[in-house]
Structure to design on (111 residues):
């Protein structure tokens, strides 16, 4: 039962989650992170750290879509192991609906 990142992360990318993960299984896209579900050991500590409440267990209703997206992009994006500054406009997008369709970028992050 891995944890997955949802669209609440898009354009927020606070990266608080990265610092607490014991197995470094976060991967960075241009404007969102994903978790590699095959590496996540289901400890759950990252869930409470996310200011955007973007991290959920894959057993939650509606999580299947995010599980597929996390798996796909964890293979394409670079590993991120340290917290970095959030985008300057992150607060502006926090809590906005439908962020994946509006803003998601498939490009890798810079980590
Ligand atoms: S803490 Fe939340 S918003 Fe920040 S990168 Fe992690 S999942 Fe995304
Ligand atoms: S649940 Fe634990 S292992 Fe999985 S991504 Fe979060 S901190 Fe890492």
């Amino acid at each position: 039962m891995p944890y997955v990142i949802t669209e609440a992360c898009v354009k927020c990318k606070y990266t608080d989650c990265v610092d607490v993960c014991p197995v470094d299984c976060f991967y960075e896209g241009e404007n969102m992170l994903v978790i590699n579900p095959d590496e996540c050991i289901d400890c759950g500590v990252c869930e409470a750290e996310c200011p955007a409440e973007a991290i959920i267990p894959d057993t939650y209703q509606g999580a299947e879509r995010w599980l597929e997206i996390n798996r796909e992009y964890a293979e394409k994006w670079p590993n991120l192991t340290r917290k970095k500054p959030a985008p300057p406009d992150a607060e502006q997008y926090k809590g906005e609906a439908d962020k994946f369709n509006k803003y998601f970028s498939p490009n890798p992050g810079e980590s």
